[in-house]
Design a protein that fits this description.
The protein starts with a helix and ends with a helix. It has a single domain, classed as Winged helix-like DNA-binding domain superfamily/Winged helix DNA-binding domain (Arc Repressor Mutant, subunit A), CATH 1.10.10. The chain contains seven helices and two strands; from the N terminus they run αααββαααα. By secondary structure, it is mainly alpha-helical. Strand 1 and strand 2 form a beta hairpin.
């Protein structure tokens, strides 16, 4: 999985964990199977990304029968750039050729030097934009898009989310029968 899709999945995971803690007032850990269901991917993919998020001190993992993951700090203190950096193994958004281009070719001999500065500037711009957006802003945006006003008491938000969760579980059961 490339860093772009890992970033999106990692942000999905972090937003889900933030929602559990903030809006559902559920302090139970979310396991990789539950998260994988939301992301619609394999739990192994989730565990790999959770490991990176844990290494970056963005999530706390607990083992045991009630184990799983939870967000390590308040979502307002987590920037999207923190999540990006946690899953960015290569250290760069853009990659040069995996092999060396043909240096005897006019283009092949100069393409990497020609693109290097532009690619570095683009990556710097991306990181700057990501550093301005918090995980809390993403969580609130999702609520607004789902028709849940974020300016109401958290108990009301929690009530609506629990109702939506219950409706989802019922629909899931109906599909199984």
């Amino acid at each position: 999985m490339n860093v772009n899709s890992q970033f999106v999945v990692a942000t999905h995971i972090m937003t889900l964990l933030a929602g559990h803690k903030l809006y559902l007032q559920e302090f139970v850990c979310a396991n990789s199977e539950m998260i994988a269901e939301s992301v619609n991917t394999n739990p192994v993919v989730i565990r790999r990304i959770l490991s990176k998020l844990k290494d970056a001190n963005l999530v706390i993992s607990k083992s045991g029968p009630n184990g799983g993951s939870e967000i390590a700090r308040h979502p307002s203190k987590i920037k999207l750039s923190d999540i990006y950096e946690a899953v960015d193994d290569a250290g760069t958004l853009f990659h040069m050729h995996y092999g060396e281009p043909n240096h005897h070719c006019l283009v092949g001999g100069h393409i990497q030097d020609s693109l290097k500065e532009t690619m570095e500037n683009a990556e710097e711009s991306v990181k700057k934009v990501l550093s301005k957006k918090s995980l809390l802003q993403i969580a609130n945006d999702i609520l607004e898009r789902a028709g849940i006003a974020t300016d109401q008491p958290s108990e009301e938000i929690s009530k609506k989310l629990r109702q939506m969760k219950q409706e989802y579980e019922i629909a899931k059961l109906e599909l199984q029968t």
